Amino acid sequence: MLKRERMERIMRAAHQNQLLVTDPCAVFYLIGEWIYPGERFLGLLLRKEEKPVLIINSLFHAEEDDQIETVYYSDTDDITALLARYVKNDEILGVDKILPARFLIPMMERKIASGFELGSEAVDFTRAVKDEEEIALMRKSSDINDRAMALFKRLIHDGVTEREVAAQTMEIYRSLGAEGFSFEPIVAFGKNAADPHHMPDDTVIQEGDAVLFDVGCRYHGYCSDMTRTFFYKKGPTPEAERIYNLVRSANEEAEKMLKPGIPFCDVDKKARDIITEGGYGEYFTHRLGHFIGVEDHEYGDVSQANTRLSEAGNIHSIEPGIYFPEILGCRIEDLVLITEDGYEVLNRYPHDIEIIG
Amino acid sequence: MLKRERMERIMRAAHQNQLLVTDPCAVFYLIGEWIYPGERFLGLLLRKEEKPVLIINSLFHAEEDDQIETVYYSDTDDITALLARYVKNDEILGVDKILPARFLIPMMERKIASGFELGSEAVDFTRAVKDEEEIALMRKSSDINDRAMALFKRLIHDGVTEREVAAQTMEIYRSLGAEGFSFEPIVAFGKNAADPHHMPDDTVIQEGDAVLFDVGCRYHGYCSDMTRTFFYKKGPTPEAERIYNLVRSANEEAEKMLKPGIPFCDVDKKARDIITEGGYGEYFTHRLGHFIGVEDHEYGDVSQANTRLSEAGNIHSIEPGIYFPEILGCRIEDLVLITEDGYEVLNRYPHDIEIIG
After folding, report:
1. Residue ranges of domains in chain B, CATH in brackets
2. Complex ipTM, two decimals?
3. B124 touching A (Cβ < 8 Å)
4. What pLDDT shows up at residue A327?
5. In chain A, whose CA is at the least distance from the CA of B121?
């Protein structure tokens, strides 16, 4: 079903009167259906004042919808000629940033539009401001993630490996009503937690290890993403405790300043300054956060480079971390929603130091 | 290390004097290294009479090589300006068919070349004719696959599910020297074999079930892909036996006609006619084969639509199948190499009806 309000927001933001959306995530955002065309062409042509046109290979299927004209093609059809029937050739066409040259160059050679520009910023900016339906789904997805975290920590016992723990997470998510992962779960013990991109391996848990879970699920297509760092059977060493509390304070102080109109770089700086003043600045090696929605990483981030201002409806992560290569690592990540007058942390799982096992 | 002979074959086939290769599989084919840039730009600029230039984000790394000029860039660099330093702006640039609009449109807007054309056919056609080094790796990859098949069938026992069997295949491949899968293995019991794209689920084996394995591994980057259909504890019903023998005959008769100069559509027709004459034509629902190499599915296929002629060095699958939805399915697939005077079947695992368990 066409999400008309979203389409209208996009066309108000677009610099073009016709826009070809081909990213399956953006198509899902607009029609509520996942269509994975693989190498085949999939396009949703948005047009000011006219019905959108969904162009889809007949191997796939979209629900019928009065608000959309759906055109099926077969593998032997000429996509460019088909597009030419719907694209106005005396106007500019905005195209998706991911549109591959194998589709774009034939459109240009046959001049199906008067010019071609990148058009997906209007989609990206619109997706970055979640509407009520999306906020409800994002809350639910993070609620499942909170409940899953409480179960994941119980999977840790003597002799278990990261891989064995990770292998049990899908079933827990499904039992809580999620469709699946929003990304492959990160389970990292001890010094493995010092690698922000560590993938679960055969490392066996040891007493005193940090246990980092960076995990997320999908609910009705919408992603969650949270990180917590526990300690196994023994509390942290004094240095690990100091690091944990710095990361926690970076997370919480950055969250506290959130509201519409704040430059994202200032939020990143707040967290970064806390960690730097604590003496660990060089070990916080990534941006503070990323946007999230129907994709785990969406357009927009909380980084030194992003001078844009936050808006009500933005949902992004706040995930400071400190990583001593080969020694120890700690990250605390929540998803946050910017509200009209402040913020809402979508994750309720506590930030306290927690000894498990 | 630059595979100079491959690069020269590509530039002889190319319609342009400069060609920008961005597909990571094609880059691997040319330099022997896998670089997965994710959303970041990766390009190998091939130029007639000049050194190729590899443009790569500094988050990644390529081995030093005297034959290539390697240029690293950072996330804050302007890719278009960087490309403009190496691309001749008074000549056409051939671009990769997968190059996304977010890179291509800025190149066009800044006119870094006098024109832009799709250039990857020259790469695809070159990749479709394997050289000696590739043929040796493809033979080895299929040899591992043959030995793996003999072990996979032993995983079937009362009570086992498709998912449990599939979960053990990676370890077997690794123990035989493969790096991993060339695609997620298909393990299908009974009527699940009637869906050519079935993914392993919790179906438990039953006596009399067909057991279909469509599996492949990767060896030094090169893919194998084979299908065999066994029967569990009991031979096939008379109809299943008839179907099996038709599929086997379609496979073997199509293979026997292989040599350089045969139109691919004729090979597809040979197999299809046998199945049609046997009365099951409507249940053979896909093309007879696909090309394969550093990707499981490469450019080129054995289908009714492909009127091109086979050449020595082509490697593709021959995989007839018959699928009665919800009842039974059977497929027999080998990889074949076209030689100067005929063909070589890369898979040695027999085609006979085999009762396992």
Report:
1. 4-127 (3.40.350.10), 132-356 (3.90.230.10)
2. 0.84
3. no
4. 86
5. A102
